[in-house]
Write a structure and sequence with these properties.
By secondary structure, the protein is of the alpha+beta class. It has helices at residues 15-22, 25-30, 39-49, 93-104, 117-125, and strands at 5-9, 55-62, 65-74, 78-84, 109-112, 129-132, 137-140.
Amino acid sequence: MDRDLVVRPATLEDARLLFDWRNDPVTRAMSRDTAEIAWESHVAWLDRALRRRDLRIHIVEQEGEPVATIRFDYGEEVEFSWNVAPARRGTGLAAKVAALMLEMEPAMVGYIRPENVAAKRICARAGMARIASGEFEKWAAPGTKGAA
């Protein structure tokens, strides 16, 4: 694990941060659901999400400052997603976050928009493989069933 990054579980106190990052235009454009989220809906969702056993949301901090989120949805597969703070994009942080995710869940998949070249590049450099195409490309970690 990158020693300058600390991962902690998200809490309801992170609601504003997660809300702002999720509603960032670039984040929305690359998400499955591109709609802007209302504050009340977000807080209600986060409150429910933090109590679920099949979902984990983490905050990544660097020098005590939140810089990214990692999310794992546990179903038939472990699905990952991440979001780097808008102010920290383009700094190489996403590659470190991808490495953290692989340490946390070595068998996982993610769904990436074909136009999200940066995310696909990060996944490929982390050793993940594209295993399906479509509206969203399916990417799998090396330890995942079906990964090359």
